[in-house]
Predict the structure of Phosphatidate cytidylyltransferase, mitochondrial.
Amino acid sequence: MLSTFRPIRPLVAGRSSPIPSFYYSRLRSTESLLRQHVTRSSYSSSSSSSTQSSSNPSDASTAASSRPQSSAASTPNQTMPEGWEDNADYSQITAFSQLPHRYFGTNQHIKINEDFKEAMRQVLWQFRAPIRYAFAYGSGVFTQSSNQSAASVAQSFSPHPHPPEAVTKWQEGGGKIIDFIFGVSHTEHWHSTNMRQNPHHYSFLKSLGSYTVSKVQDSIGAGVYFNPYITVNGVMIKYGVVNIDTICRDLSEWNTLYIAGRLQKPVKILRDDPRVRLANQINLMAAVRTALLMLPENFTERQLYTTIAGISYMGDPRMNPRFGGENPRKVANIVDAQLPSFRQLYVPLIENLPNVDFNDSRVPADQGWEKEAAIANALSSSGKAIPADDIIGGLDGFKLQQDMDPKRRGNMVRRLPKGFRQKLYWNYQKKFQIPGSAFDKVIEEATDEDSMSIKRREGGDFERRIGTQEDIPEAVGDCIKKTISWPSTSQSIKGILTAGPTRSWKYLQEKRQKSKLGKAQKEGEQEAKKKEE
């Protein structure tokens, strides 16, 4: 029996000529694909057409990353060419064809239900101001609890006034506000256009004009301007506006880890940009390396993904029990419910790293095995967590092993994002008691080569010494907290200005409620364990 199929819309940021797309059907009994090429008439977008065109590899990535596939054999090769990171200069990228290869970064396009994805894209079409890059994230898109009863208790009512059917089905068991990030080229122009169209989205700051709004956005916190509790197309959303340059800088340098941290977890990219895709691949590789420095020689997938997911919450004031702003089990809930999506995001990277590998006889030999559970979820109309029995390897996933050789460890340290790596260097300068002049020489030797250099970024004696320290998990964690703490705190304070007092208070109360429910869930689990013992 053939399953229902729908056309896949290419990821485009601008109006263009008719773009070929596809209709796909899945023959469940034989697990084979039937393809029929059709031509779909052009559809519009308010953003500039210079970002992408019908010949863009973005279209290929859409087909590769979002259409249902029944076998791993149809998965495109995502192997990354050797040395791509050494000259990964996102500022020189203007088209997808300039990326290392056609399928580069398609692991970032997490599979979800097509109808729900289309409903979110329709939200974007309602904005006249040009959005060049966009993704949806959070519990409104990806469930953050494998315990469905807990999820439904968390929010048994829907915040959406008149949601499309696809949203209602996907959020079955409890409606959630859908969070968006919009990447824009010119902050002041964007807000000027949006304030004319949607003045009700803004707080009292709109009376000061788009120049002031853009200054508040760019100069305070992490460079993001949030408008919460906004209804678009019958859907309640929160959207953050951020400059494309700010996104790329954070992804490649980790100067705040605000956007980078969100993109280290599964998100649904709705409009792609070649610069961001390249910078985000750097970010994801850095997340894996950072986690490896914090993990022992042998670990599980679940431990790896939990470490990665926890990066963005270290130093976040909302995780402080005194404030009670976040569910204390948030990281564990995210990984428990989204392990298949984490696999789709990170397994292609793990397979390209020379110092870590799966050490488990249960790992399938087929290419693309990491996508199977995600494909099954994409075919479902509900966004509920996939049952543990249906996940290959279970909730702990497969076992992995990393090479603890000092040279390998030193290379990982050397390839950490520049801004973050500097903090780690300063930490160990104090511990090793390196004199200032000698340390300056170390820093000079570790300075990133210019974009024309072909020299590989390899760790020296200093990096190898750092990589073999017993306290490196704590040192790395300390650097993460220092990176996140102030931008996250000031961003939260800025939220009072951008959202206004009323909406800010409402947001805080909802976060506190989630925190209480999370504590109750944690206590319940502890009681259950005691009874089992």
Q: What stands out?
A: The beta strands are 19-27, 32-40, 133-137, 178-184, 224-232, 235-243, 268-271, 298-300, 356-358, 399-402. The longest helix spans residues 501-532.
